[in-house]
Each structure stands twice: as structure tokens, then as C-alpha cells.
Amino acid sequence: MFVPFSELPASARIWIYQASRPFTATELAQLEPELQRFAAEWTSHGRNLEASAVILHHQFLVIGLNEAVADASGCSIDASVRFVRLVEEQTGLQLLEKSQLAFLVDNQVQLIDRRQLREAIAAGRLTAQTPYFDNTVAENGQLRQAWPAPAATTWLAKYF
Fold first, then answer.
1. Where are the alpha helices (DSSP H) in 70-149?
2. What percent of the chain shows pLDDT beyond 90?
3. What are the residues facing 113 on neighbouring strands?
4. Are the C-beta atoms of 9 and 47 separated by less than 8 Å?
């Protein structure tokens, strides 16, 4: 069952998929009904799931699930990954690739290859306070309150 993302509780489980480039306005318009349809039809062992899907910052596909209603099963998680792959095919974007880190620089999402992180810090392009999109965030409340968060408050702290 689809619910607007803003109505998911803070305890809702989330999955964040980072795009290799921003979604275009045309892609966003085309994806909106597909996101709602996926959430409306997503099930686990025949039970409807209370779910939502949204694009945030034009760069992140976020799927949310109210596990207080019903938990996701392995099969339902597989179905969500198939949906993400379908979005990749439709847009030509990579959403499952994990080598890029996303930061908010000058109000723009900037992707940096993990191998270039130390260099970007040494050059002063990234600081401990640079907002970082930690895509390992697993609950909607964390997403709302600390995403992005200063890089030094995330797993990246060891680099500062």
C-alpha cells in the first residue's frame, strides 16, 4: 500500500540508492507514477506492505517501509532490487554501484570516487564539516535528522 513518504514513521526502514548523476526533470516526471505503483504493489508473502518511494536531492532513490505493518521478506527485498534495476535500465543511471561518495558542496550533490577521498581532503575540497550523504542510514528518522551529516560525524571520521 502506497503512503506518501512524509507519512512514514521515523522507525520506517529505508534503502537509499545513489544515482551516478542527477535525475533530469523528464526522468523525475516519468518515474513518479512508477515509484507510487511499485510501493502500492509491493508485497511480502502475500501481505501488502505500507511503503513509499521517492527521489531526494535529484540524486537518490529512497524506498521506505513501515515494518510495524509488515516486514520485508527476502523475496520482497529481491523485488525492490529488481525495481531499482528497472529504473537503471530506463534512465541509463547506475544506482547499485557503490564506489562514489556523495557530498553536498555549494548546495549541489558532488560525487567523489572513494579512491580520491584522501586527495580531496588534503586539497581542502572536503572538510570535517562538509555534509556527507551516508547511504547506510537505515531508518527514516535518521534520514530526516542527519542526512546529510557533517562528514566527521559519520564513518568517514577516521579521515579527518
1. 74-91, 117-122, 140-146
2. 84
3. 100
4. no
